[in-house]
Design goal:
Largest interface: A-B, 28 and 38 residues
Helix content of chain A: over 70%
Shape of chain B: elongated
CATH superfamily of the largest domain in chain B: P-loop containing nucleotide triphosphate hydrolases
Order of helices and strands of chain A: HHHHHHHHHHH
CATH topology of the largest domain in chain B: Rossmann fold
Shape of chain A: globular
Order of helices and strands of chain B: EEEHEHEHHHEHEHEEHEHEEHEHH
Structural class of chain B: alpha/beta
Helix content of chain B: 25-40%
CATH class of the largest domain in chain B: Alpha Beta
Radius of gyration of chain B: 22 Å
Number of domains of chain B: 2
Strand content of chain A: under 5%
Number of domains of chain A: 1
Strand content of chain B: 25-35%
Strand order of the largest sheet of chain B: 5-6-7-3-8-9
Oligomer: heterodimer
């Protein structure tokens, strides 16, 4: 019964997200336009920066990591907006459990992320990206797993920041994470190469490499992602628990 | 034994100039089926008390029991509905969808058609929530509070945003709901509202309960007037003895008499002291009445501090 109850809640959460046209379209259009600009001009490059990966594929996954990160973190923007009208207090005096609340937020973020992914895959195909079916699947799987810490980060930020401050925080945060993760150009050596491997966005971008070489993430990737997930989930839960006051 | 009890509640917030005691020892018992008004000026600690009743705030000391359960258990069981003081609606849903969404969270909600009818939201149920007027929004908020068919309904300053007509419609809805045997707690700073709709009122001032009783008795208590006059060199004790005076006070050359029966007092005053001049008679507002009830001269400052505390809390 409880599952049924929160399913209705989830359905309306999704409906609300897709009805917010400006938000919906903008969060899909920017990664797409950037991708077509960058990858369109380098579409014949087959070994980008010595990575062994063609430019359209490299940038497709890079932009996908950017678009899906944005989609997950925008959860936080919606939470901040709800808090500012006092809606989270209204929800807290219903039987909706924190678990069901988080689940609805995370699944809404994933729905946005999946749409973003599909749009960029379609753009990639149009620029000549071609992969065997199992590599598409493996890459998609790793990207989706790699988004878990970002879901937690979005929820944590949403319960701490105001709607005014969360826009710049997300914009700047995503740009920084994208840069460190090698979204816009490959990082193959030096300080950022070593540092980047401890950043979750790094491994989102690496999803294309491991798919191509036929391996999964190395143990280090799983450790880094697991560590961030645990840390950020704890922060999200703490932020949610503390956030009962009038905003 | 009462169904809802607040015992020894204390809540202190951190303020910019040290701790602010928003609630300092509140005891209230509420019986099932009763409509109780929590009456007090802004900053009296009403909203903080309600937040503790709903489990939104954890008291520093004291306990809350709602139908024999903790607030969070009562909320989880769907026994509590509330219209909080601050709050708007989330956007991008129609009124009908929003109420359905909330209904889906409860084990035994009222049928949607009944809620729409009861709250008068049916006529704009297909509109998006961001397109509603203030009065319509308030009606939808009432619907959100009622949809769970709660045993306890908490209304925190529910009519602040409403015009006269809206208020009447709102109270028709709530009377109808109360008639089903539901318990209602109404926080307000309108004495008239408490008098018209509640069986009993609890008066709060600067974080404490200062009076608790049937609304008509309280109305008589706080329905006093003050007489102010320039009248030097008269003994306060003599003024205190005048007919209808409940308190006498001196402010320099002026005297201030708090009166239960100002008509009797003004006649007695002029008969005894024809030299009294610059006479003003004012209806004592709730705040003055509370000060009279609590007898604390520093009360206004404390009330302001508590109001600041709520604002500080609000700004966090």
């Amino acid at each position: 019964m409880i599952g049924g109850l929160s399913l209705t809640y989830l359905r309306y959460e999704l409906l609300r997200t897709f009805r917010n046209r400006r938000f919906f379209i903008l969060s899909l259009v920017f990664p797409l336009v950037l991708y077509l600009l960058i990858a369109g001009s380098t579409r014949h490059e087959n070994n980008l920066g010595g990575t062994g990966i063609s430019a359209p594929l490299y940038f497709m996954v890079g932009m996908a990591s950017w678009g899906t990160m944005t989609a997950m973190l925008s959860c936080g923007a919606r939470i901040a907006a709800e808090r500012s009208v006092g809606w989270n207090r209204q929800l807290r005096i219903t039987p909706l459990s924190p678990r069901a609340y988080f689940r609805a937020k995370v699944l809404t973020g994933y729905a946005m992320a999946l749409i973003s992914l599909v749009v960029l895959y379609a753009a990639g195909l149009s620029l000549g990206v071609s992969l065997p079916a199992n590599e598409w699947l493996k890459m998609t799987f790793l990207i989706l797993v790699g988004l878990v810490p970002f879901a937690a980060l979005g929820i944590a930020l949403g319960h701490v920041l105001t709607p005014d401050s969360i826009g710049p925080a997300l914009g700047g945060g995503v740009a920084l994470l994208a840069f460190l993760g090698g979204t816009w150009f490959p990082i193959t050596g030096g300080f950022f190469f070593h540092f980047g491997q401890y950043i979750p966005s790094w491994w989102l971008v690496q999803a294309s490499h491991v798919a191509l070489s036929g391996h999964s993430w190395p143990a280090k990737a799983w450790l880094v992602m697991g560590g961030w997930t645990v840390l950020l989930s704890a922060l999200a839960l703490r932020a949610y628990r503390r956030d009962t006051g009038r905003v | 034994m009462s169904e809802i009890s607040l015992r020894g509640l204390v809540k202190t917030f951190k303020g910019p100039e040290g701790p602010i005691e928003a609630v300092r020892g509140v005891d209230v018992e509420i019986n099932a089926g009763e409509t109780l008004a929590l009456l007090g000026p802004n900053g009296a600690g009403k909203s903080t008390t309600i937040d503790m009743l709903l489990g939104l705030l954890r008291p520093d000391a004291g306990s809350v029991s709602v139908f024999g359960r903790s607030p969070s258990d009562a909320v989880a069981a769907g026994a509590v509905g509330a219209m909080l003081q601050t709050g708007e609606l989330i956007r991008d849903l129609t009124v009908r969808e929003l109420i359905s969404m909330m209904a889906a969270l409860y084990p035994q909600p009222l049928p949607l058609s009944e809620v729409l009818e009861l709250t008068g939201t049916g006529e704009f149920s297909e509109q998006r929530t961001q397109k509603l007027s203030g009065g319509q929004t308030q009606r939808v908020r009432a619907a959100v509070a009622l949809v769970s068919n709660p045993e306890l309904l908490v209304l925190d300053e529910p009519t602040v945003a409403l015009d006269v007509e809206g208020r009447q419609a709102f109270w028709r809805t709530m009377r109808e709901f109360a008639a089903r045997g539901k318990t209602i707690l109404l926080a307000t700073h309108y004495l008239e509202e408490a008098d018209a709709y509640a069986d009993r009122a609890v008066l709060m001032a600067h974080g404490r309960v200062v009076a608790d009783g049937p609304t008509n008795e309280l109305k008589a208590m706080v329905g006093s007037r003050t007489i102010r006059a320039t009248l030097p060199d008269v003994d306060l004790a003599a003024l205190q003895a005048l007919s209808g005076v409940s308190a006498a006070d001196r402010r320099g050359e002026a005297i201030v008499l708090t009166c239960a029966d100002s008509d009797a007092t003004i006649r007695a005053l002029l008969a005894a002291y024809p030299q009294a001049r610059d006479i003003e008679i004012n209806a004592a507002g709730l705040e003055q009445a509370f000060i009279a009830l609590t007898g604390e001269q520093d009360a206004p400052a404390t009330v302001t501090a508590a109001a600041d505390a709520e604002r500080t809390e609000a700004a966090r």
